[in-house]
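Researcher: We're teaching a course module on how sequence relates to structure. For the next exercise, students receive a sequence and then see the predicted structure as tokens, so they can try to spot secondary structure elements on their own. Here is the exercise chain.
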Amino acid sequence: MFHLGHRTTPPKVNRIPAFPRLAENNIRKGFLEDGQYEKLFGSCSEHWYRAIVEVGRTYGWRVGELLNMRVKQIDLLTRTIRLEPGTTKNRDGREVTMTRRVHELLKLCVFGKTGDSFVFTRSNGQPVRDFRGTWAKACKDAGVPGLLFHDLRRTAARNLRRAVVAEGVIMKIGGWRTRSVFERYAIVSQADIAEALGRLELRDGHSFGHSEPAEENPDEHATT
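Model: And here is the predicted structure for the students to work with:
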């Protein structure tokens, strides 16, 4: 309000006061390991559920971006999915290539539909708008109660980083516009750190990079 008042002609505000900013505390904490994911994926037989979970975990897309997807955004021939500019949270468009598993699941989701139809629909043909109940039950059955769908976004970022995908590419796939926001997801877990240090130990031959001292030759000190 102060900024708007300052920009008017003539200005209605002569000075913009400084306001203290609260520290952000919205860092995501959930990870989904591969074994847990397979249980979560198989805990519900609804095809739309399996497809939306697989796409969310693969690309890290937000639930709103997925629920609003239309069939015309899916190109089965070129195996691409496109989020149009203006339909995402940061308003940027995105285009990704489908994995084999994503392609198989989405092929069934769009079968027999028109271009303007929603991709994710229930068995009665109605678009999926809210699946919090289904999600909560699936998480409980999979042994990960309290997991958020948004945690798939963090899991996707970590999986892509583990696959040695460049961070700039990961940010484009998931729709992170700035590195500061991307880093808030803290996508390196303690297990990742332990694995990295284990590889370091193997490289150093368990000697932490120090060579063993050479043995003394007793003959050098023998008297003749």
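Model: If you want an answer key for the exercise: The chain has ten helices and three strands. Confidence is low (pLDDT under 50) at residues 207-211.
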